[in-house]
Amino acid sequence: MAAPASIVIVGAGQGGAMAANALRALGYTGPLTLIGREPHAPYERPPLSKAVLRDADAEHAAAIHPHTFYAEQDIRLMRGIEALALDRARREIRLADGTVLAYDRCLLATGGQARELPALPRGTPKVHYVRTLDDARGLRACLRAGARVVVVGGGFLGLEVASTALASGAEVAVIESAQRLLPNALPAPFSRWLAARAAASGARLRLGARIASVACEADGRTPAGLVLDSGETLPADAIVVAIGLQPEVTLARAAGLEIDPHNGGIRVDACCRSSDPDILAIGDCASQHRDFLGRHARLESWQNANEQARVAAAAMLDAEPPAPPYPWFWTDQFGCNIQMLGMPDGDLVYTCRGDAEPGAQAPRLIWLGHRDGLPVHGVAVNAAADLRQMRVLFERGTRIDPAGFADASAALKPWIKACQQAAAPA
Ligand SMILES: Cc1cc2nc3c(=O)[nH]c(=O)nc-3n(C[C@H](O)[C@H](O)[C@H](O)COP(=O)(O)OP(=O)(O)OC[C@H]3O[C@@H](n4cnc5c(N)ncnc54)[C@H](O)[C@@H]3O)c2cc1C
Question: How many domains does the chain have?
Fold first, then answer.
């Protein structure tokens, strides 16, 4: 099949920028346009709650590609402009300044918006949401020694912000409505460990807590603190709302593309094609069938955006798509680099290897979740290299020996080898 006459990517974030790169790397030489609503060149979001939130100097390292990349690769990067409409019949995209772009293939990489808390809408004084570089800059200006920061939401993002705020000397409280941290992403024993780690680092966690009301200053508008359903008031100089993501599917919905009723994402096939095969969708806004979950899901992760970018680029050019990788995710918080391989599932048995003392200077441990001896989910704290070594056991479905794993006095490499040998056909 002939290469597409033109490709337009809407959304100049992680997925969009990586897809543009992948298209050129696969040999596509036709017109390629990348449209971004934000004024900045594409940048990575993970540092926004970590290094960039701490230090303005870290901003330059967050760029996805060097600034010369787009001109060198003949990619038309249009920044600070929103795509307003997608006309499938005419194969055109209309931009906010009236420009109309024709497309042969269109890729939607529109990400999402931070979910808003009705009681603390965007624009309220002292209230911060953290999705964009400008959001991170606004919050960074408030993080100083002694500032009272209240984080609403004890998910990965909320905990990272809490950790960074503590590192800048702020006093931090975290409000989480669930009874434990990240109940859908972490096994209960690790959840408890992480809560103890956060507390040992100075965060005041309020689990199973809800906001009953917002206490306001004399102007009746500026929050002075949050009143919990327990009656406790948490005074605040800054309030960070981190309660999840709303996928950005405005264009897709208006254009009549199929939207997943379960997660609000644009429903796509294994090649990231939407219900219109000339329009593809990737990243946080896309809902794709996941074999390891047995259902459609949106994955909000850096790895997923990157991998789907490669898959969609290959699909647009009718090239062979790369094999789906094992799901992997990382977070940095409370002095720990935490990496996760695979996905949790209710009936897994977890075995722990390493030093599980939450207050340790540099704890190092791995929780391995297995079913009938098959590894399914791994959570490594400051042990990324170990988890990397174990990856082969996950990918090949090699039965493991949990007792041998738990023995941290024995080296990991020989244990992995022994598992592989035991699983090899005689
Ligand atoms: C603070 C923070 C920390 C994170 N930390 C981690 C982490 O530690 N590990 C991890 O794996 N993941 C992390 N993530 C998640 C990861 O960054 C996202 O999953 C990833 O950025 C998704 O890429 P995307 O391309 O789908 O969306 P985005 O990167 O959000 O890009 C979407 C872009 O599309 C633009 N856009 C939307 N609609 C339009 C339109 N109509 N016209 C023009 N432009 C439009 C948006 O403005 C945005 O710039 C973090 C995210 C955040 C916000």
Answer: 3
